[in-house]
Amino acid sequence: MKKVIEFGIYLLVFLLPWQTRWIFEAGKINGAASEYLTYSLYGVDILLVSLLILALIYFRKNIFISKNFTSINRYMEVKLLLIFLALGAVSILWSENKNLAFYREVQIILALGFFWLVANFTKISKLAFSFVASLIVPTLLGLWQFFAQTTFADKWLGLAEHKANLGGTSVVETFSNGIVDGRWLRAYGSFDHPNIFGGVVAIGILVTLILLCHFSLNGKFLGTKSLIGDLVPKNKFIFQGQAYFLCLFLHFCLVLFSAGLFASLSRSAWLALLLGIIFVGAFLFLQQKFVDLKNLIYGSFIIVAVFLVMSVGYGKLMNVRVEGGTRLENLSLDQREVYLQQAKTLILQKPITGVGIGNYIESLAKLKPNNQSWTYQPVHNVLLLIWAELGIFGLLAFVGFLGSLFWRLGRKNELAGALLIALLPMLLLDHWIWSLHFGLLFFALVIALATGFSGRKRVI
């Protein structure tokens, strides 16, 4: 049963990028659809609940805590997380839409259950490999969308169609002589937005770099006791050959993910990757781990080379995203400013208790009842969003959780610190980690990866 649960978790991680779901109640505002008021049962939820049931049955007869993860039961962040969950549950009492609040609380509990499964039943090497492998097909899909400038809908894969000529689609406008001459579709991959695609791929690149650090520059595997030792046979006559294959595979993923990150044209994702690499580089330099630092520089060179190659044909798109100042870029900034003012209004109404978990859009629609459905969007800042929904104590609990986690893991381990640092742009410049089902599970996965990397002694 333990093996079934373990490989079930790897399968869950592999399937996580696909948003297949059954919408059993479509949310609407003023007669139009709203994602943030929609009730759905995701395919991965069915697998997750099944694994949790099996794990509970297993734990009735066994006491098992994985040695590959640091035990966190006695740490402050666990207590803060429990307080955070309790605040979410209590906020249901004063939520405008209690059913929606209960639905969101259940999603957060499932995300916590996902982390618990990962921490108790997986090996960090295989978990990291499963995550990297899970991004190959979504990235190939994203690159096809970018180059072909088309998408398709498929309910079984959870894919929506996005047309560059329609409003609401994420595009980059190009100009010629001051006149708009094109709308270039950004890559969505298998996700709901290019920023989500870019953010996930950025984390995937960091994990790939971490795995590559366990090879020398000529591709030689550094030993079965390293982080990825579990991925190759222990037989000394055959493991080196599989190690070479794994090294080539990781190089392929690094090139592929770098191209996908470019195609997302996501500034927050670019910033996330940059911060992660800078953190690792500074940490390794101060710790005088020069072998690792050489590997990091080598991997970073590959990323830069891919970006330069992509820029040959699509440099104008990158310049628009970096420099800003165009019509759509200014419109995006203006909308973000509007969302900030809306969040400020809701926070000032209930700064202590918040409007209730999951009720941000519901409260916003009540505040401004006559707007079009697409104008009701969460503020692009997770901290403000949590403050608006759970009040000041919810915000303090969440910030304390992140701070405690980074203090315990990030300051001692460059791998864990890089992943946690890379989350910051996604938390401060977007909302999907909190507002969407995938975001909650992805956040739990990144925290699990950071915890796992910090709990494994490296030999390099």
Mind explaining what this structure looks like?
By secondary structure, the chain is mainly alpha-helical. The protein folds into 2 domains: 1-123 and 326-460, no CATH class; 135-323, no CATH class. Helices cover 64% and strands 6% of the residues. The chain has helices at residues 2-15, 43-61, 76-91, 98-121, 124-134, 136-148, 194-212, 239-264, 267-286, 290-323, 327-349, 360-367, 382-410, 414-429, 432-435, 437-454; strands spanning 21-25, 28-29, 32-33, 39-42, 171-176, 179-185. Helix 3 (76-91) packs antiparallel against helix 13 (382-410) and helix 14 packs antiparallel against helix 16. It starts with a helix and ends in a 6-residue tail after the last helix. Residues 65-72, 217-226, 232-238 and 456-460 have low confidence and may be disordered.
Topology:
Layout: H1 2-15, E1 21-25, E2 28-29, E3 32-33, E4 39-42, H2 43-61, H3 76-91, H4 98-121, H5 124-134, H6 136-148, E5 171-176, E6 179-185, H7 194-212, H8 239-264, H9 267-286, H10 290-323, H11 327-349, H12 360-367, H13 382-410, H14 414-429, H15 432-435, H16 437-454
Antiparallel strand pairs: 1-4, 2-3, 5-6
Helix pairs in contact: 1-2, 1-4, 1-5, 2-4, 3-4, 3-13, 4-16, 5-7, 6-8, 7-8, 7-9, 7-14, 8-10, 9-10, 9-14, 11-13, 13-14, 14-16
